[in-house]
Amino acid sequence: xxxxxxxxxxxxxxxxxxxxxxxxxxxxxxxxxxxxxxxxxxxxxxxxxxxxxxxxxxxxxxxxxxxxxxxxxxxxxxxxxxxxxxxxxxxxxxxxxxx
Length: 99
Description:
Blueprint: H1 4-19, E1 23-26, E2 35-38, E3 41-44, E4 46-48, E5 53-59, H2 65-76, E6 85-92
Parallel strand pairs: 5-6
Antiparallel strand pairs: 1-5, 2-3, 4-5
């Protein structure tokens, strides 16, 4: 069972991803299968294993995807405990959904 520090680290990673330029939100996959399970809740679009930190996102319509992925890696790397940060773009917002 994850401890409170693990949950706080996961919340910090999720917040850093959401704050990265070009990111709409974390994305849990087509059926919501990508998620970090914590006691009483889950964080969709995030997996933290011993070997890697996996981040799955939806991006804004006009996002520069390589630049967005680099921004996510840069924001998450200091929080990932030395794990490589793997970024997967799961979806791109439709233009009418963009702010």
